[in-house]
Amino acid sequence: MTSTRPNIVLIQADQMAAQALGAYGDHAARTPHMDRLAAEGAVYDRAYCNTPLCSPSRASMMTGQMPSDLGCYDNGDDFAASVPTFAHRLRTAGYHTALVGRMHFIGPDQHHGFEQRLTTDVYPADLDMVPDWERDLADRLQWYHDADSVYSAGISTATIQLDFDEEVEFRTLRHLNDRVRANQAAGEELPFLMVTSFIHPHDPYEPPQEHWDRFEGVDIPAPLHPEVPSVEADPHTHRLRRMSGFDRRDPTAEEVARARRSYYAAVSYIDDKVGRIRERLAELGLAENTVIIVTSDHGDMLGEKGLWYKMSPYEESARVPLIIHGPEHLVPRGRHATPVSLLDLMPTLLELSGATPVAADSSAGRGRSLLETARREAAGELRPEDRDVIIEYLAEGTHRPHLTLVRGQYKYIHCPGDPDQLFDLEADPHELRNLAAEPEHREIAQQLHQELTTCYDLPALEQDVLASQSRRRLVAEALQHGTTRPWDFAPDPEQRYVRGDFWNALAYGQIRPDATVPTDPAAG
């Protein structure tokens, strides 16, 4: 029996900026596998995360809700087990669901709907990274991003991140084998969702020699606009620089070039893994009925405006690659200009799987299927200005809620106490000219300001964040006393290879090119 519902493989990198992929126009990139997926599938040119920080971005993506809806404000915020995720919804619809690799879940629930989890995470699951908006940013917490990762970037033979991603690749490929084995045993093709999530190209920028060497003689562009905006014009950028230590020392041109080459090499490293996953799908006969989605949780500034890492609303930090590849009757081909966000992954997966849609008037109903967006845009029913994307930032490096609204060509940024910013991304893609105070743009600035302040009670949100930080600091301190019980996921011991029933164990593990299994295992 063949399932009419597609398998779904969601591949997520960490801190992989759209602008560093060939598919998004970077001529220095070495990303042939992702570029090929893009050429054969759907590419969303204006895809954004809903917060440029790992843990809340991923919780938002998995639930279709904004971080402030979830109360997941930062990388030290627990993600409630009672909130439905796309893994819960597809599992209910009959999909086998598995997570391989990183998802930065904080709290005791380390599955959030996945039937299987095959690795632990690279970062702790505890309340270790709770910000304090009442603390001076110069009084550094030990887990803050550190400028040293730019100064020390370069080749590594082995790192924690390389070890992690090698394990993620291995377990991903073996899990695909296991899905075929399970189908053979069941006598039918049961659909599956596999989320494979890597830590690269996240800092520190430490790629293998092989991938570094790919960029020998390659003209990797320097930051186009490394100049730091004035503190009067952009206090948030200065807060981030102060928090990470860039206010004390700027990297030299040589250090910037080495860090950027290391980053590009790490993106190429991820591209190799995308290629091997696709190759294994083809070897197993799964490719024709599998949808592959490639994305990231946020981008990386890579030296633009004197910033590195994420946490900023600027395009390099907030924009993510989003590529969907699959059967043509499911995935509309081409490039799409409508602004979309990671909130849209939930309704996309529900449409692909045939799971029950989320009510449009619920907090999880903000997103729209990316497939529907592509169809409506192609039919002329949807224009870029018809779709708003909101980006929140409620974590370290700010002291007040920091909100961004993207509508068509405009991006509006508001943080109480900071000057408002308005950019025309069509005329000014590098966000250099703030239009917020210019008379000819006053009307659009007021419209977008009204939209944001209608959606958010900013004083109440600020108090909620401060109260949450205070509660979590108390809990985190208390849990360090006496017997400690970490929340980190510990994978179950595997029961594979030959145990007990000798011949049937061998037969179960066998996948032949013709997808047949001996009818009499003892005869082999």
Arithmetic mean of pLDDT:
94
Q: What proportion of the residues form beta strands (DSSP E)?
A: 5-15%
Main beta-sheet strand count, sense and barrel state: 8 strands, mixed
CATH architecture of the largest domain: 3-Layer(aba) Sandwich
Helical percentage? 25-40%
Let me know the number of strands.
Answer: 14
Number of structural domains: 2
Spans where pLDDT lies below 50 across 5 or more residues: 516-524
Question: Class of the largest domain, according to the CATH hierarchy?
Answer: Alpha Beta
Q: Remind me, CATH topology of the largest domain?
A: Alkaline Phosphatase, subunit A
Distance between the termini: 26 Å
| Principal-axis shape | globular
Please count the helical segments: 15
What spatial order of strands do you see in the largest sheet?
5-4-6-1-7-8-2-9
What is the H-and-E element order? EHEEHHHEEHHEHHHEHEEEHHEEEEHHH
Rg estimate, integer Å: 23 Å
CATH superfamily of the largest domain: Alkaline Phosphatase, subunit A
Structural class: alpha/beta
